Amino acid sequence: MSNLSKVPSDTERDKKNKQGADNALIQYSLTSDDYIDQLLPVIKSALKTNSLNSLIEKLDVASQEKQDELEVVSFGSVDGITSTVTSIEDIIHYSNDLSQQLQEINMQLNKSGIDLSQKKKTALKYKKLYNKINDTIFVFNACLDMLNKTKQVLDLIQNQDFYKALMNANSLMKTHIDEIENFEFTKNIHKSIPTLRSMILEEARDQIIKWITLSVEKQLTTIGETLFRNMELNNEDWEKQCDNDDMLLKFKINSPIEKSLRSTDIKYFDPLYNEDVEIDLSPMFHTILVYKAVDDLEKLKDEFNKEVLRKRDRLLYPITEALANNTSNRKEFPR
C-alpha cells in the first residue's frame, strides 16, 4: 500500500512534463529577439492555472542564471582582453625592436653598399693602373729586346761572325711592334739597318782579303814547294808504272788514264792542308754564305778576282821587271 502511494499519478506526471516544457521555453525565449512573443503561451497558461507568481519566480531564476553566466563571460572576457592587450603590447614592443633592428641593418647595408661602391671604384682604378703598368712593362721589354738585338748584331760583327750578324739584322728589320713603332730610337734603328748590312758585307770582304794576305800569301813559297814536290812524286810514280807496263807509255801525265791510276796520297793531295801547310778555309766559306744570303755572290767573285790579280801582279812584277832588265842588259853587253 505504501509503494503504490509513491507512484506518481498521470496528473502529476503531466504536470511535471508541462513544467519542464515551460522551463525550456522560458530558457529559449530569453535567448531570442522576440522573447515576448515566445512567452505569450506560457503567460496564458499561467493565467489559466493561476500560477503567475510561479512563472515570475521562474523568470527571476532564469534571469539570475543568465546574469551569472553573463558575469562569468564578462569576467572571462576582461581577463582575455587584458591578456590580449598585454600580448598586443608585447607584439608592439617586439615590432618596435624589429623595426629598429631593420633600420640598423638598413643603415649597415647602405654603408656596406657605399663601401662596396667605393671599393669597386678603387678596384677599377687599380685595374686600370695595373693595365697601364703591364703596357709600360711590355713597351720597356720591347725596347730592350730591340736594343739587345741591335747590340747583338754589333757584337757579332766585332767577333767577325758575319753570317749570324746578317741574319740578326734581317730579323731586326722584320721586327714591327705597334707600341714602339713611333719611338724616335726605333725609327733610327730601322734606318740604320741598311748601314749595318753594308757594314757586314764590307767587313766580310775585308776579312777574306786579310785571309788571303795573312793565310795564303805568306805561305805561297811553302805551298809552291809542296805542289812541286807532289808533282815530282806524281811523275816518278807514273814513270814506274810505265816501266812496269809498256801499254802505259802512250799516255801522258794528267791524262784520264794517268789520273785514274794515281796513288791515293797523290790523287787526294791538298796543297792548302797537308803536313807542311794548314790554311783554314772557314773565313772564305763564311764570306761566301754572307754574300749568297744577300744574293750578291757575283760581286764577291769580282772582288776576289781583283784582289788575286793585284797580288799576282805584285808577285810577278818584280820577276818580269828583273827579266826585262836582264834582257836589256844582255843586248847592251853582248858576250
UniProtKB/TrEMBL annotation:
Pfam families: EXOC6_Sec15_N
Domain Exocyst complex component EXOC6/Sec15 N-terminal per the UniProt entry, residue ranges: 59-228
Lineage: superkingdom: Eukaryota
Family matches, as InterPro entries: EXOC6/Sec15 (IPR007225), EXOC6_Sec15_N (IPR048359)
Region of interest (Disordered), residue spans: 1-20
GO biological process assignments: Golgi to plasma membrane transport; intracellular protein transport; vesicle tethering involved in exocytosis
Skewed-composition ranges (Basic and acidic residues): 9-19
Record GO cellular component, one term: exocyst
PANTHER family, sorted: EXOCYST COMPLEX COMPONENT 6, SEC15
Protein name: Unnamed protein product
Organismal lineage: Eukaryota, Fungi, Dikarya, Ascomycota, Saccharomycotina
